[in-house]
What does this fold into?
Amino acid sequence: MRVGYARVSTIDQNPELQLEALRRAGCEKVFTERGSGAADDRPELGRILSDVLRTGDTLVVWKLDRLARSLKKLIATAEELERAKIGLVSLTESIDTTTPGGMLTFHVFGAIAQFERALIRERTTAGLVEARQRGRKGGRPPAMRPSDIAAARALMKEGSIPVRNIAQRMGVSVATLYRHIGKKGGVTKIVESEEAHG
It folds into this structure.
């Protein structure tokens, strides 16, 4: 069975062009998804993949961008279909994974996506190595400087200011304050002192 899937953005509210193309392509059932072009949420597509399509069926789309917003998501969806032995046809791009040529095209897409991910990883690693050689550490800077930690410790030991107020003064959450104070020890005594006053 050929199942059509049309996605209509809020800008392009008239799905007739897609629907007519899908009907002419021999789709017995056609489903329409309405939503923002920016959103990656496609509940109707999820329902089609889990409840409607069966082994040997073919999912037909008017254009590949109707199926997924990113190449990564498109490849993942195509691989999911391939595992379930469901074909994928894109009318605009003339891709048909039920043919050897169509499968080749999709494997090329997959290889390109994998290559792109590897390049990004490689560049990230090279950037971190270079930064470390220049004396920079990776990651975020600590939320509290050593001088802030010392000041917070002194205020907490004094016991006259609630921990919540100390955290606000330092510009951090109570959990972050305890985490940084606890790094040098003494947090148990401070907590007990807080409970005694609270």
In short: Strands lie at 2-8, 29-34, 58-61, 87-90, 95-96. The chain is about 55% helix and 10% strand.
